[in-house]
Amino acid sequence: MTQEQAEKSVMTGRLVVVRHGQTDWNKAGRMQGSSDIPLNDRGREQAHEAGRALAEQNEFWNYLGASPLSRAQETARIIGEHVGLSEIETVPGVIERAYGDAEGQTLTFEDSRHPQDLFAGVEPEGDVYRRGVATLKDLVLEHPGENLLVVSHGTLIRRVLLATTPGDWTEHVPNATPIEVDIEGLFAWDPEQLVLD
Q: What is the DSSP code string of the chain?
């Protein structure tokens, strides 16, 4: 297979990301980050809703991956029940941004956009962009032409969408809502062009 054929094959698949279902910290407006907070009952209902919606697309899903955190793993397991995928690959690169000392705090929307200015131990925003895009790009390359589902987290998904997918992704990524990632945008994104506000 030539390089051109390989690239064309990659572009024929789909990549859909899903934020995990609701947790009690989501409900309370607390910063979660890498804290391992489980789904609540509403979050499980949302995961079932997402799974049914994905199954109704009459799409054959080839792959299911998830962040190592339990809220993402459980969301993926529930979605997998609906789309016929019982095997879930743990994907460390799509874990949520680490918010350090901000985790567990309730912040204003403005403060939540720049937690590194207020708290220690916050993962640099540029690193979140780079690892999110690189990890998803690697998955697409490993599964050329396949339909991939990846369960991740709000901040990471938002950064990936800002980098790769047309539209305004500056606000909130809803819990357990499937969102298509533009695979061409994934491969076109240049980390050297990253400008942080």
A: --HHHHHHHHHTSEEEEEEPPPBHHHHHTB--TTS-PPB-HHHHHHHHHHHHHHHTTT----EEEE-SSHHHHHHHHHHHHHHT----EE-GGGSPPP-GGGTT-B--HHHHH-GGGTSSSPPPHHHHHHHHHHHHHHHHHHSTT-EEEEEE-HHHHHHHHHHHSSS--SS-PPTT-EEE--HHHHHH--GGG----
Closest C-alpha to 186, from 152, 139, 154: 139
87 catalytic residue (yes or no): no
For residue 174, which phi and psi values (nearest 5 degrees)?
Answer: -65, 150
Can 143 be counted among the known catalytic residues?
A: no
pLDDT digits (tens, 9 = 90+) for 126-178: 999 999 999 999 999 999 999 999 999 999 999 999 999 877 777 789 999 99
Which entry of 74, 82, 96, 103 is annotated as an active-site residue? 96
Q: Is the pLDDT of residue 2 over 80?
A: no
Beta carbons within 10 angstroms of residue 19's beta carbon: 28
Q: Report whether 145 contacts 14 (CB < 8 A).
A: no
